[in-house]
Amino acid sequence: MLDHDPFPTPADLTADTPLDPALRTAVSAHRETIADVLDRRDPRLLVIVGPCSVHDPVAALDYARRLADAATRFADDLVVVLRAYLEKPRTVAGWVGLLRDPTMDGAGDIAGGIRAGRAFLVNAARTGLPLAYEFVDPVLAPHVADTVSWAAIGARTVTSPPHRQLASWLPMPVGMKNTLGGRIDLAIDAIRAAGLPHVFPGIGTDGRVTALRSDGNPAVHLVLRGGTVPNHDAASVAAAVSALAEAGLHSRIVVDCSHGNSGKDHNRQPVVLADLADRIGLGDQALAGVMLESYLADGRQCPDARPLRPDLSITDACLGWARTAPLLEQLAVAARRRNAVVSKERIRR
Ligand SMILES: O=C[C@H](O)[C@H](O)COP(=O)(O)O
Ligand SMILES: C=C(OP(=O)(O)O)C(=O)O
Predict the structure, then answer these.
(1) Which residue numbers delimit the DAHP synthetase I/KDSA domain (predicted)?
(2) Whose CA is nearest to atom 4 of ligand 1?
């Protein structure tokens, strides 16, 4: 058995599965739009929505097409971004995602995974949606980063210096999640670190280990995902805004309705979302965006089940599409109300 199994370089992979020039232009426009929403130059609400993980690219593309139609319908009020997550960080162990284990049997065919994963990302980008991605393994980032318009550094890696350095180099807005225990101060440290220039080891486009140089990412922000207790409520968001302001940082926040904010119970996501929508509709400016875990069918299946259903999550339970579409409408109404409130206040002044 080989103790190493080389996989394609970022340059070879992107040559095999390129983003055509029109898509490259679209990705850079999406990144700017998202940064504008975070900075309030664009008054819309950011909505990052999609499966916990992609295990079946064909079914996930079906989901992406439905979402793209909805995104067009709500485009006056929402900037909808597809969760296109192909790597899963595990608390202890479990399926690590399509990129690293495409055959879902622990064989670890990373070469096959990055080919299938990149093909999925390029096809998903063709729907016109911006793509969201959690960068779990910094080594794999150069293989996919050009397709991504919004990135997360997750709760399990937000304290890691290599991930903070990677975020400083990534060419898109990056959300730093609070830690599993709910620590916001450590996510704030991550935001500060990623805003600075770094020189760090990484993989170059030619596949060689190289010194990567970053200028610092100007669009790093906080994502509240709950911890041992939820943190989507008004008091927690206000506390986070104050902590950010005290650190001299960007104080617009994305709130994840899933994970620690729903106790991983997908049925609680609409309850969290309703709480956020109420506050947005009343004019709350701190809430720049909302995240939802949603897929074709409602719930989850055991990853060891065979055959696996293509339309049902094999990681966290998701809201089914039928329950997701009305939530997008609820968020669009809230965003429209917020803009009306803000306009009235401006006129009064
Ligand atoms: O978002 C997905 C999961 O929450 C994450 O990968 C961790 O899952 P685990 O706690 O089951 O390992
Ligand atoms: C793993 C995820 O989130 P978190 O880092 O908040 O657990 C995720 O969004 O898939």
Answers:
(1) 36-325
(2) 316
Q: What spacing in Å lies between the alpha carbon of 329 and ligand 2's midpoint?
A: 24
ipTM of this predicted structure: 0.98
Are 16 and 8 in contact by the 8 Å Cβ rule? The answer is: yes
Find out whether the peptide bond into 307 is cis, omega within 30 degrees of 0: yes
Q: How many of the other CB atoms lie within 10 Å of CB of 298? A: 19
At 21, phi and psi to the nearest 5?
-55, -35
Whether CATH 3.40.30.10 fits 10-348 = no
Task: State the Cα–Cα distance between residues 185 and 80, nearest whole angstrom.
Answer: 28
pLDDT of residue 1: 39
d(CA 189, CA 45): 26
The partner residues of 131 in beta bridges, in order of sequence, read 82
pLDDT in tens, 41-57: 999 999 999 999 999 99
**CA-closest candidate to residue 66, choices 330, 320, 316:** 320
What pLDDT does residue 2 have? 54
pLDDT in the model for residue 4: 79
Residue 120 in contact with ligand 2 by CB distance below 6 A:
no
| Residues of the chain scoring pLDDT < 70 | 1-2
Task: Give domain limits for the chain.
Answer: 10-348
Q: Residue 202 C-alpha to ligand 2 middle, in angstroms?
A: 23
Cα angle 80, 70, 287; round to 5? 35
φ and ψ at 96, to 5 degrees? -100, 5
**CB atoms near residue 347 (< 10 Å):** 7
CB of 256 sitting under 6 A from ligand 1? no
Please report the DSSP string for 151-216 in residue order: EEE-TTTTT-HHHHHHHHH-SS-EEEEPPTT--SHHHHHHHHHHTS-EEEEEE-TTS-EEEEEE--
